[in-house]
Design brief:
The protein is mostly helical and 218 residues long. The protein has one domain: Four Helix Bundle (Hemerythrin (Met), subunit A) (Up-down Bundle). Helix content is 48%, strand content 7%. It contains seven helices and four strands. The strands form two sheets. It has a two-stranded parallel ribbon with strand order 1-4. The chain has a two-stranded antiparallel ribbon with strand order 2-3. A hairpin with a 2-residue loop joins strand 2 and strand 3. The protein is globular. The protein starts with a helix and ends in a 10-residue tail after the last strand.
């Protein structure tokens, strides 16, 4: 079977040329060539389960990709909603912060500190159909996610040894391994939505690559 041009380009690490915002019929905002996708991840120290530490490193990398997608955007872009939807980039980032903390709370039963919960509760899934909260700066959103990861989720997960035991809480049946997969998917597909909202606002984001080589679990 002959290799298609697109398959050959993908194999060779090439991408299709992208038209400018003006040529796409959008207002002209500066496009961004982003950070590389990274695969050689270093798990955080101090975890009782090495597989879980690698899972946390993956979540951190997925989060860093989101931060790079938004850290150059003005408030106008972060608050941009398309037609009759209520989703904005700000709302999606708040939702990812809330979701990570909420799932880790279910896994660990560790209480989310009140000041942190106050700051992330606007990202609750029950709020997604409401008008999005305006006025967040990109730096504020990124710092909020970092607080969830550094001050809550990573310390709460560090002591877990069994990641395959099945738990039933609050109407859901899950394991720690399953929830880590859920969180990875969650960061990934909302990152895609953020990229689309950024593009619809008028600024494209282009991924770069690096060697696709990962550290084995230790």
């Amino acid at each position: 079977m002959r290799e298609s041009p697109l398959s050959r380009m993908a194999r060779d690490g090439l991408t299709l040329p992208r038209p400018s915002a003006l040529n796409r019929g959008m207002k002209a905002n500066q496009d961004k060539v982003g950070r590389p996708r990274r695969y050689n991840l270093t798990p955080p120290a101090g975890f009782a389960n090495s597989e879980l530490a690698h899972g946390v490193a993956l979540l951190q990398e997925l989060a860093e990709r989101v931060y790079d997608q938004i850290n150059d955007l003005p408030g106008e872009a972060l608050d941009h909603a398309v037609q009759d939807t209520t989703l904005t980039i700000s709302m999606l980032v708040l939702h990812m912060a809330w979701a990570e903390a909420n799932w880790v709370r279910r896994i660990t039963t560790a209480d989310i500190p009140d000041p942190l919960m106050k700051d992330i509760k606007k990202g609750s899934i029950s709020k997604l159909s409401e008008p999005p909260p305006p006025g967040y700066a990109a730096s504020t959103l990124i710092e909020l996610c970092r607080r969830v990861q550094k001050d809550y989720s990573q310390p709460a997960l560090a002591d877990i040894e069994d990641i395959d035991g099945v738990l039933t809480k609050e109407g859901s049946t899950f394991s720690v391994r399953g929830i880590m997969g859920q969180l990875a998917w969650h960061w990934t597909y909302h990152s895609g939505q953020i990229g689309l909202l950024r593009l619809l606002w008028g600024s494209d984001y282009q991924w770069r690559g690096e060697d696709i080589v990962a550290l084995p679990p230790r």
